[in-house]
């Protein structure tokens, strides 16, 4: 347990979350200088509407992500230890250091441990899936909007923040885009690591059956239910039970964001060319 706490405490992901929280707060104070020409009450209201949603979103990320990060790390390590346990059975059998009956008994123990971890993961997914859906959608929306603002030159930022072309506002947008991207992919990668470790046991079971064909029937009688269950319903965290947060989903999100970036760039380039031709004509 100490090693698990130590690993979670010093992850770059946890540091980046604290960085984003501080980064969103401090530039938010300086962005309000954009409204210095307004009268004092108006300036105060605009400032509150800018900073309030950012603080709420930042604390929401903070409240969910640290316990979720800890839970994912614990589950990943437990699945990994169980995989190493099954791998050791295979290694000792290959070196003739273990009897068949003893190996089958340990294999049954490995299967039961994997099943218990699977049940725990699915119960925790029932708790976190709704929040993961909301935060994943929010981060994707924030990233796409900031891409549109950066490429299109818009002056209206999500959540009511007004941005100018000053260096403060540009740094603020860049920091928020980086922070939301890091949180989005850090959270998804952490969740996907649980899925990958849970699914890795299938390859070990297949290798056991292929390496020792004389015990193939007995090995398959122990492992077939687990393999079929993982094939029908993979283990891992989901976004409201709609999307499994695995590596395929991460690749899909990256592809969608890159496609959006290319489309916005092409549209911006065409608009600039059209404005340039109109100015030359005028």
3D architecture notes:
26% of the residues are buried. This protein has helices at 2-9, 12-31, 40-94, 100-152, 167-211, 216-232, 247-281; strands spanning 238-239, 243-244. It has one domain (2-272). Helices cover 83% and strands 1% of the residues. The longest helix has 55 residues, at 40-94. It has a two-stranded antiparallel ribbon. The protein is mainly α and 282 residues long.
Summarize the structure.
83% of the residues lie in helices and 1% in strands. It has 282 residues and is mainly alpha-helical.
Distance between the termini: 72 Å
Rounded radius of gyration (Å):
25 Å
Mean pLDDT: 77
Helical percent range?
A: over 70%
How would the global form be characterised?
elongated
Which class best fits the helix and strand makeup?
Answer: mainly alpha
Low-confidence stretches: 1-10, 25-43, 154-162
Number of domains: 1
Q: H/E order of the elements? A: HHHHHHEEH
Number of helices: 7
Overall strand count: 2
Side by side, the strands of the main sheet go: 1-2
DSSP strand content: under 5%
Task: Summarize the helices and strands and which ones pair or pack.
Blueprint: H1 2-9, H2 12-31, H3 40-94, H4 100-152, H5 167-211, H6 216-232, E1 238-239, E2 243-244, H7 247-281
Antiparallel strand pairs: 1-2
Helix pairs in contact: 1-3, 2-3, 2-5, 3-4, 3-5, 4-5, 4-6, 4-7, 5-6
Task: Supply the key terms.
single chain, 282 residues, mainly alpha, two-stranded antiparallel sheet, 7 helices, 2 strands, elongated, disordered N terminus
